[in-house]
Request: fold
Amino acid sequence: MPTTPAVPDGKRPTLAHVAARAGVSVALVSIVMRGAYGASATTRERVLKAAEEIGYRPDTRARVLRSNRSRLLGVQFGLRHPFHTDLVEGIYAAAEPAGYQVALSAVAPTRGERQAVEALLADRCEALVLLGPEVPAARLAHLATQVPVVSVARRLRPAPPAVDVVRTADDEGARQAVDHLVALGHRAIAHIDGGRAPGAADRRRGYRTAMHRHGLADHVHVLPGGLTEDDGARAARSLVAENPRPSAVLAFNDRCATGVLDTFLRAGVTVPGEISVVGFDDTSLSRLAHIDLTTVAQDIPRLAELAVGRAIARLDGEAVPEGEQVVPPHLVVRGTTAPPATD
Amino acid sequence: MPTTPAVPDGKRPTLAHVAARAGVSVALVSIVMRGAYGASATTRERVLKAAEEIGYRPDTRARVLRSNRSRLLGVQFGLRHPFHTDLVEGIYAAAEPAGYQVALSAVAPTRGERQAVEALLADRCEALVLLGPEVPAARLAHLATQVPVVSVARRLRPAPPAVDVVRTADDEGARQAVDHLVALGHRAIAHIDGGRAPGAADRRRGYRTAMHRHGLADHVHVLPGGLTEDDGARAARSLVAENPRPSAVLAFNDRCATGVLDTFLRAGVTVPGEISVVGFDDTSLSRLAHIDLTTVAQDIPRLAELAVGRAIARLDGEAVPEGEQVVPPHLVVRGTTAPPATD
DNA sequence: ACTGCCATCTAGAACGTTCTAGAAGAGGGC
DNA sequence: GCCCTCTTCTAGAACGTTCTAGATGGCAGT
Reply:
């Protein structure tokens, strides 16, 4: 039996056990544990030593029960979306320095958004940060009557007054992608869209208006896509068959773009030689050396930071400005775009 | 203000509020909420109605505090690993029917395993399920003195008595892959390994012994790899340069294999025409139509089920058999393997 | 000697739930 | 009438923490 910690009987050590061992009151141990004012240096040391010896660990449940603040941020995310998991990393990074804990609740095939949110609320989260929520806006508005709600990457229109929205300027991102391609000399630029996914409508619109602004209205070409590799691959197969073929494609997101890339490679269509490809999100996927995808970067750390900041501001009762917080994207040029082939 | 729920003052409704509204005692409401025996049908209905009306939601924190059981399973996973996120889905599916909740704690660049586990323990998880833990075995043994610990996919040798291990027979999986390739007629089969990642040593060993058994000791060829796409791509680039080139590759896992595939495609090496590729894990990645990877399937639902089952058995004080639980893998043949080119 | 103040410490209530023990009332059998 | 039993309900303690209000003692100023 390796280094058994001297737990009193068989249960988890509590403040009372520490207090008994250090010969002080429970309240004083609490003070020391919180690092609060009101204990002398010497007893502080003695208490900490006693706690260490019996392996005491504060019980967040009891702590939360007593102090009305749980300092707990509930985050709902999709296990399958790299964009979400990247955001979660950012949320951890933003929340912990601010003194907030993060409770994760995943959306999975067997576990809908409703269930995910219920679990967070039962856990006494003080605010909810929902990544790309797909429930009806009315449901979000209803939730927001109970607890501050931040919707990340999902635009709500008309915006319910109580729900905060943090998102990327998707239309602007699509515009940047088109501008980049046009500057390289492309004219026939297609867009593989995201259907009803959060952000898809804005990206589509951004693409359309940018094309118009460049006088390329005749070349507007939107293919039905989606947010998975499969969706991208399917759209790409239909592109390959086209004649004439566009010289560039803007995909809904990085996953979709990798599906496109792969199909092109298989079909012997060289990238960026014969056709340029642009993704969206700048997830870790696109940064991988063997994908090396030109993409519109969402500023994931910034989105995470704003979402957390907004939630905390609401909790602190600060008068937060109404309206969405929109983060500008920026194009990251990598290896999948080049001037079009000069026939 | 849309459908404000009639919360008493401004706080979260409690049992006492429901009790007051229904005109019964707090204890009775508790009975009804838990669905326990001891309330008549009519009052049960009345209480539920009252609870519904004021939007009551049980407080798991308080609940846990009182009943020593938290029925909470702590799961540590890596946000970046599809294999882990797939497992998490399985764990949700296995735990909830058994009446256990799942608390997730992610490992990320800014958040080490130590931190992840501390959070779970502070949250009163009754047992820990650690996915591919990389901390020293001694640390796991120490944790196991406080709470049941299940290590998934990480073998421990010598096995600390108190830590349960649930894993795939990695050596057997590698053997199956080699057998398959040999049956197709391959002889020069290389292995891109996983370095020190959990499971890597066993897969390497399985590969080696299988090669020996087929009399292909001379063709044993292990390239240093890793668990990301980049690692696979790097190894594949060195393979492409070899002469003669192996006719088949077994990659450490699916991510690694997709890196290999991509590099081959770029280099104009056809798969499976010139070279066959086998992955490991059968994550959702490999199933994607455009990757269509032959791979060794880990039985993810089964692993999840066993891990959860073991944890629960320990909690119920059942005398669980010592030793690891090893799940057999099975080969899934898809499009990246074929007989070698007949020169 | 009295007062006041500061630093240090403590008792006991509170948080929202579950659990134990038992009360109230309705019937049934003698 | 008495004793059971069964169902339905309730009072109050308990869980581990934090918070409020105060106790204690030392020191300084008058």
User: Anything to note?
Assistant: The longest strand of chain A covers residues 72-78.
